[in-house]
Amino acid sequence: MSIRKLIGIVKVMFLIVLTSCGDEAKKVTVYPAPDGVALSEDYNVTVDGQSVPVYKTKIPPDKPIPRLNHSRSEYGYASLASFDMAEEAVELSITYPVAIEEAKVLPSSLGITPRIEGDRLVFNVTKPGNLTIEINGDWHESLHVFVNPMETDVPDPDDPNVIYFGSGLHEVSHVNVKDSTTVYLAGGAYLKCLSDPEEEDIDRLIGHNKTPPTFLLEGKGITLRGRGIIDQSAIHKKERRYTIFSQYSDNVKLEGVTILDPSHWTVPIQASGNIHVDNLKIIGWRDNSDGVDISNSRDVLVENCFMRTLDDAVVIKSFEGKGEVRNIHTRKCVVWNELAHSFSIGAEVQEDVSDVLFEDCDVIHDVGRETALRVYHCDDALISDVTFENIRVEEARRLISCWIGKTRWTESEERGNIRNVTFKDIKAISAPIDTTLTGFQDGPDWKPYIIRDHASMELTGFDKNHTIEGVIFDNVQLDGEIVSADQVTINEFVKDVAFH
Prior knowledge:
Layout: H1 3-23, E1 28-29, E2 44-47, E3 50-52, E4 54-59, E5 76-85, E6 90-95, E7 103-106, E8 115-117, E9 120-125, E10 129-135, E11 138-149, E12 162-165, E13 168-172, E14 175-177, E15 182-185, E16 189-193, H2 202-206, E17 215-217, E18 220-226, E19 229-231, E20 244-247, E21 250-255, E22 258-260, E23 267-270, E24 273-278, E25 281-283, E26 292-295, E27 298-303, E28 306-309, E29 314-318, E30 325-331, E31 334-337, E32 343-349, E33 353-366, E34 373-377, E35 382-396, E36 398-404, E37 417-430, E38 456-460, E39 468-478, E40 481-482, E41 489-490, E42 494-499
Parallel strand pairs: 5-11, 12-15, 13-16, 14-17, 15-18, 16-19, 17-20, 18-21, 19-22, 20-23, 21-24, 22-25, 23-26, 24-27, 25-28, 26-29, 27-30, 28-31, 29-32, 30-33, 31-33, 32-34, 33-35, 34-36, 35-37, 36-38, 37-39, 38-41, 39-42
Antiparallel strand pairs: 1-5, 2-3, 2-6, 4-5, 6-9, 7-10, 8-9, 10-11, 39-40
């Protein structure tokens, strides 16, 4: 056995012993911020008396409905903090620059009522989850607190199948990840993403995009995980660079990391199978800064994630010739959507999509141009067997939509069909009325529409051969009342709609 290998084994054994000894009494793990990373001055956070670093990242400007082409010179800042906790409850304390008059902790479904002590906010956290704290009515530049479960099975940095980023500041341009490889971002690791100076074989890597992703996953048995942060803010606004792109892959797990300022789709999953996305945290503000885009893939589970995105949060698409979409499950996620959709299928759907379930999720804000829960069909495939269940929407202007038509994203000559969509156990609150707002209707070009005094709902087929059939509203509640047929706009190309 080589000396190097022996030293590596001793290091791992020491870490295991050290971790096991510490974890017997450890309730929380806090990771230090690397030198050279600017921190937020708006909030001071401690957990069980330990100081927690508070980072900051750009968010869209504070405008009623931000446009997709909003000015890049206008923005705000959100703050974020993160730590790991065991099964025992911990006390979270947040200090604000001025006296706190009111505060709320989202999602409301957690039932957390904070205690106000002057400029300090205190409450207990009993389990991992993703929290948003809004103080004195400031919903825009709020504080996000990501509470992770304790990490287990930390990989060996000397393992040849591990790409290891330890705590500290790293510069990364483009990383190819192949079979049986683990990419690990340790707590306290901060990856600054840069442009790739060589950009070899770009067309193969991305297709319609012209720059490679920060991480390209192609292969079997790939994992990317940890408690570190990936920051794409240094990527030029015109570069449109994916953050983590999985294509032609099988048995992939993405877990735990935080992604800030993605320059394009954050986590696209294409032509892949058996994918597990768990506890990712995404805050994006640029054009097309989607959260998780699932296209032409099968057997995908997205759970326990937080997404604050300008564009779609979790969206399903299918491009011609790349295969159908089947068995896609999203659950236990918290979403804040600034412009487009929280949970949706479309717009691009050129291969069949079936067996899709969105369940047990919280939408804490959705007041943009589009619809919170949507099947949005602009091409020629069949979309079938879709369920939105047990979803809590705390603020929406447009709540539910199933729609077939032509838009600026249409690729197919023919239109498609939608079959068997269920909305079950949905509880939603309409966004406050503001008559100065305008949104944009569907179609080849966006046109103004009038904001209603309640969140709108629509079922719109295209023609007698391209219809929506078999839609169920089962215990859908809007503003405390069960939704009835007269609250939903339904055209003549929709059949078999039931309200329970």
